[in-house]
Amino acid sequence: MPKASLISIAAYAPPKILTNFDLEKMVETNDEWIVKRTGISQRRIAQGEDTSELGTKAAKIALERANLAAKDVDAVICATISPDHFCMPSTACKIAKNLGINTITAFDISAACTGFIYLLELAKSLIESGNKKNVLIIGAEKLSKIVDWTDRTTCILFGDGAGAAVVSANEENEIIDVHTAADGNYANLLITPGGEEKFIKMSGNEVFKIAVQTLTKDVVDILEKNQISSDKIDLFIPHQANLRIIEAVKQRLNFTNEQCVVTVGKYGNTSSASIPMAMNDAYEAGKLKKGDLLLLDAFGGGFTWGSALLKFGGETANNF
After folding, report:
1. Residue ranges of the Beta-ketoacyl-[acyl-carrier-protein] synthase III C-terminal domain (predicted)?
2. DSSP label of 56
3. What was the pLDDT predicted at 319?
4. CB of 134 closer than 8 Å to CB of 99
5. Could you tell me if 119 and 137 are in contact, meaning their C-beta atoms sit under 8 angstroms apart?
6. Largest Cα–Cα distance of the chain, in whole Å?
7. How far apart (Å, rounded) are the C-alpha atoms in residues 93 and 106?
8. Running along the chain, 320 residues long, what does each successive block of 10 average in pLDDT?
9. What are the C-alpha distances in Å from 56 to residues 19, 77, 207?
10. Alpha-carbon gap, residue 70 to 73, rounded angstroms
11. Is 132 exposed, middle or buried, given 0-12, 13-18 or 19+ CB atoms closer than 10 A?
């Protein structure tokens, strides 16, 4: 059976920066309050770019870093909760078109902030089944279009961006294990109702408590299943939703500051794009190297959650 390896990582962040001080002029809030409760200082906002365009820009870099041409890709899968269109065409179809590949598998998934973990599981399965050789996975979000900019409890949290990766058949540096799960009983705690209520609604305190408990258990489970201790992890890359959640999980699992990748301060919560964007930051900073053992985890609306253990199969970055 062929093995699946993540052989490249890339990201794209829109150039416009919206700081907490900018938000002070829009809603009743202030920088100190936002930083204390979330760890977020700024976020990126897409202007004149659709979700598919953000994803395309990240995808092109991911292909270049994988030393692949677009024609080498067998499937394009995009995770998003802010697609270009209400139900069709899929964002993945538009990304594939932008890349000039028009006769391959292309579809979207909706798993909120856990989207990238779900993508890894799908790509791993497609590769290991022998059906595909190179799968392009993309987490892309333009959350600014589904955020109520008059709601100070949610508008401070979210940003726009995209992350992309190539998963290929490769005997070295495999994706070791992926866990995904969901529980729809908590759907109303984090929801985009639809219709006239098209904006994100969240019960913050309840989500926080369940997220910390669930993420901690899921990480413990995947480490125990694979008989790996936390000190063997080179980089712990969690979903970047809230610094308090990241710190709580990190402390319960005894990860050091050096192991933990944190980018929430400069990007905010970019949902399905958050983990690949954080991974890309570590890669471009020279902290993520070929063969490094990574632990990813995420929790999002649905509720959905998941974790992944993998060795990075991409070439170590040159200085950017």
Report:
1. 223-311
2. H
3. 55
4. no
5. yes
6. 57
7. 5
8. 94 98 93 93 97 98 96 97 93 97 95 97 96 97 95 94 97 94 90 81 84 88 94 95 90 91 96 98 96 96 94 81
9. 26, 12, 31
10. 6
11. buried
Q: Are 270 and 158 in contact (CB under 8 A)?
A: yes
User: Among 21, 14, 80, which Cα is nearest to 47's?
Assistant: 14
For the chain, list the domains and their CATH numbers.
4-169 (3.40.47.10), 175-312 (3.40.47.10)
- The predicted pLDDT at position 228 comes to 94
**Which residues, in sequence order, are bridge partners of residue 181?**
305
Look at the block and give the residue holding tokens 């829009």: 26
Helix spans in 226-318 (H): 243-252, 264-267, 274-284
Handedness of CA 33, 36, 41, 44 (dihedral sign): negative
Question: What confidence score (pLDDT) does residue 195 get?
Answer: 74
43, 116, 254 from 230: Cα distances, Å: 30, 22, 7
Helix (H, G, I), strand (E, B) or coil at 316: coil
Query: Hey, what amino acid is at 32?
Result: E
- Which residues are known to be catalytic? 113, 239, 269
Give the CA-trace dihedral at 302, 307, 311, 312, to 10 degrees: 30
65 within 8 A of 10, measured Cβ to Cβ: yes
Cα(17)–Cα(246) distance, integer angstroms: 23
Measured between alpha carbons, how far is 64 from 50 in angstroms, rounded to an integer? Answer: 22
